[in-house]
Write a structure and sequence with these properties.
Blueprint: E1 14-19, H1 24-40, E2 45-50, H2 59-71, H3 75-84, H4 86-92, H5 94-103, H6 108-117, H7 121-133, E3 141-144, E4 147-150, H8 158-172
Helix pairs in contact: 2-3, 2-5, 2-6, 4-5, 5-6
Length: 173
């Protein structure tokens, strides 16, 4: 029997989160991301996109490390742990990134190797280039349903705006 004509589930809305893992504003935004996860569960996909800023010395390495964490199945938990501990990232850079991987039960040696060989550089570069192309200038910036919402200047009202758009998209599905 051919199931190709069977009804396919509607795709879930995607919230792209343009983030920099050494950014205090992105750390503040974690509360909104947790609230969105609590409200929508798996009905809303949160997609981490990297936008390391030159003013933060370890942001590019942190983005590469988050990509390695994603390969190992723990991308978001790792990114959030880095954001929660920005002071340690500021102080210890790549040593902290590898230490955090070990603390989280990830393959820390693979993190170390990935940071040395740069295997995730192209993915981070691609995110950054796409961000620039769509007008991202700072972090956090959110994109949902083609709308860019800049959280770098103020977080006020952003979660509510995201919820309005997500609710509309989910109702239409």
């Amino acid at each position: 029997m051919n199931d190709s004509t069977a009804a396919q589930p509607a795709p879930r809305p995607v919230l792209e989160v343009w983030c920099e893992l050494q950014c205090p504003d992105c750390r503040t935004a974690l509360a909104d991301l947790h609230a969105l996860r609590a409200r929508y569960g798996d009905r809303l996909e949160l997609r981490l996109r990297h936008f390391p800023l030159e003013k933060h010395a370890h942001a590019f390495a942190a983005a590469q490390a988050a990509e390695e964490a994603a390969v190992q199945g723990r991308g978001w938990p790792y990114a959030e742990a880095v954001l929660e501990r920005i002071a340690e990232l500021d102080a210890d850079g790549e040593r902290f990134l590898v230490r955090l991987a070990r603390e989280m039960g990830l393959d820390a040696e693979e993190f170390d190797t990935a940071l040395i060989d740069g295997r995730h550089t192209l993915a981070v570069d691609a995110d950054q280039a796409e961000g620039k192309a769509i007008g991202v200038t700072g972090t956090p910036t959110y994109v949902i349903d083609g709308r860019r919402l800049d959280g770098g200047k103020s977080q006020d009202g952003l979660r509510e705006r995201i919820e309005e758009i997500a609710d509309r998209l989910l109702a239409a599905a």
